[in-house]
Amino acid sequence: MNGFHFNTKSDQTILLGRKARNLSELLSGLQTVPNSSIYYHTHKYLHQHQYLSPEPPNDFAYWITQALNEQTLGEQISSVDIVQFRTIEELRTTFVRLFQTHLAGTERLPSAPLGQEFHFMTSRIFVLKTPYVARSLEEFREMLQRVSINTLYYHVFDAKLKLEKGDNDFSRWFRDLGNLELAEQVSRLDPYTYTLEGLRNKLIHLVEKYGPH
Domain boundary at 105, 121, 137, which? Predict the structure, then answer.
């Protein structure tokens, strides 16, 4: 049986040198920046504010609402259910469609005040091994209680979308073990509705419930 190797990570934030003053320029950026930038602006809040619950706003929705005072579009962008997407490209397409529909129905194109432009950013991820390797669900549950929230974030959020694995690392390993029910339960879990500590507790509960007894 292949063990589960817990990794952790650190991130380096990078300015892309591109900014937007209005919705038209933000749309243009959305259509052309790398996937890693879309991921950064929709997920960094989850990591930086891990004790806020639930669903803090993504950067696009926040800027549209606060800098441009476009409440309706801001609410639409904020309410996009990120968990339903398997790739960042699908998420990008949804954002672009919402922007285009909004712009087609209005002649109003407000600009952000000087100094409040939207700056497109991304991050470079550095993956680091930890000493934790689980070879059974019992060991997995034990180690899940010890690892850092960076480890949790990496295996749940980064693995699925930023690294484009299509699913979180935990579900993929449970599936390899042959525990399909546990894999499905964790795969269907909406991690965006929990704090990271809340997510840890939920995962432990699911392992205890659906693991072997």
Answer: 121
